[in-house]
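#onboarding

Welcome to the new folks! Below is a worked example of what a typical request in this channel looks like: someone posts a single protein sequence, and someone else replies with the predicted structure as tokens. Don't worry about understanding the tokens yet, we'll cover that in week two.

Example request:
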Amino acid sequence: MALEGQDNSDMSESMRSIPEKKHTDIWQLFREAQQNILYLNKQRMMAMEELDNMKREKKVLLDRIKQLEIKKQLSTRKDKLSIRSELLLRLDSMVLTGMIGTGEASDLRKMIMDSKVTVADNFSDILHKRDAELLAELCQFSDKSKKKGLHIVHICTEMAPVISVGSLASYVTGLSRALQRKGHSVEVILPKYATLNLDEVQGLREIEAEFYSYFNGQLHVNRIWTGVVYGIGITFIQPIYYSSFFSLERVYGYSNDFERFTYFSRASLDYIVKSGKQPDVLHIHNWQTAIVGPLFWDVFVKQGLGSTRILLTCQDFDSQCLEQPDKLGLCGLDPSRLHRHDRLQDNTKTHLVNILKGGIVYSNKVVIMSSMHSKGLIIHSLSYGLESTLAVHKDKLLVAPCGFDNSTWNPSMDHFLPQSYSVDDMKGKAVCKIALQQHVGISENPSIITVGCIFSEVSDVDLENLKALVCIASRKGVQFIFMGMRKIEGINRALESFEEELKLKALRYGAAPVAATLIDNQFSRQITDYDFESTEFSQYINNTFGNVSLSRAIDEIKNNPSQWNRKIMEAMTKDFSWDAECCDKHVSAYTSILNL
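Example response:
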């Protein structure tokens, strides 16, 4: 019994240990299951992150492929335009060297510009051909079609990136490229400055011929250089006797500026006639080439240019060039005939002639470059003494906005940004904002409202108002970034143009231009409402952001962010490039004067 009892005790102990063992095993299995679940979740998260990375990489690759395709298209287009421009310049060389006559050259120019067959495909190796060989091939290239595009020749003093001082340089280049993209043929004539950036000129060559131009009672020899920039043919005129005219350190600002640019204007017209060109439009710019207007109608219109018309662009009216009347005789004009109130006589200083006024009077159309100002405001408030002249010729005045290069200033393609973005994907904009905050050393937070202010000059009164503005806005959690610009006499309008251009680009990048004031500008709005002759850009800005105080803009961003974001995204989709309203207004102006 004792043995039996002992055995029963051992058995009972053994039986009690079985549930405990099972309990331990279950917890062990549970812990293993948990570890497995955690491992699977971790693997799942890693797989999802890898998938997201693959999606991002795919998007980056697709964006890169898209950019490369655009660049390839632009490059192909650029090459074709360059070849056409080089062909036209080679024709000029053939005329000047006496290889062909002006009539034959005119026919060949029309063939090159008007042919349905792409000229670039037939003359891609133009640089390796001699003039005689090239001429023979051109004569065989006889497929002609009805003329579609216009032939415009700019006579100007700046062109980016060859020589750039103010807003004229980017305007000439931007407009010319836009015109060529729309099927028009554009050439540019420039002085051959000593400070030219010739590295930007393709195929630069000196034509092995010289031509004469009239100045100061004598014929003077000029050398001709040609090249291509962005597919636009450029002719550089280099005086021999007056070589010092354009061998200076600056483009403007010398006591003999009138003589320098009058010589160039007359030489440009002499060159056009000598080379047999018959452009539809001679496009002249500011007072520096405004003398082309009276020269054309008094001297050159009967020298084979009867179908050509004149268009003058004014970047501003604060620089007009007043001179003694007898100086007009330097380029072959009759001072007694032109020193009249309805011609070149200055409205205030009547003993002097006003060169810009002469350009206005003698041009078929005058384009005033201003994105924000209307025609009425310009005539009555920004004409600098030319109000009566502009009022008489108001029907020929046209206001056109500035533009910018759409392929360069594009947040979805801008390689200077830390991360690209677009209306369809705005995430990169926050990254760019943080990068800007880091760069200037302010609090890094993409949700903080950041205001950028650019000033060329701040008076004591403006400074006090600015202090009050910053103080009130800062209490609402707003950041300010200030940039100062030194205002230099003679380039005031360049700064204004920079500010207008900045508004265009700001909209493209999703930043709103608002007035740096505490209250809404009701007076300015009333002026705008009653003056309808303004640009589409001006109307859009005024209707969407214009005349709105900074305080009101801040309140809208904070209280109605969805509405504000809709405005921003709509603005980003607007096309304010050179190809848009600016180009359309110029083409309309060109077309209208050809029918006069």
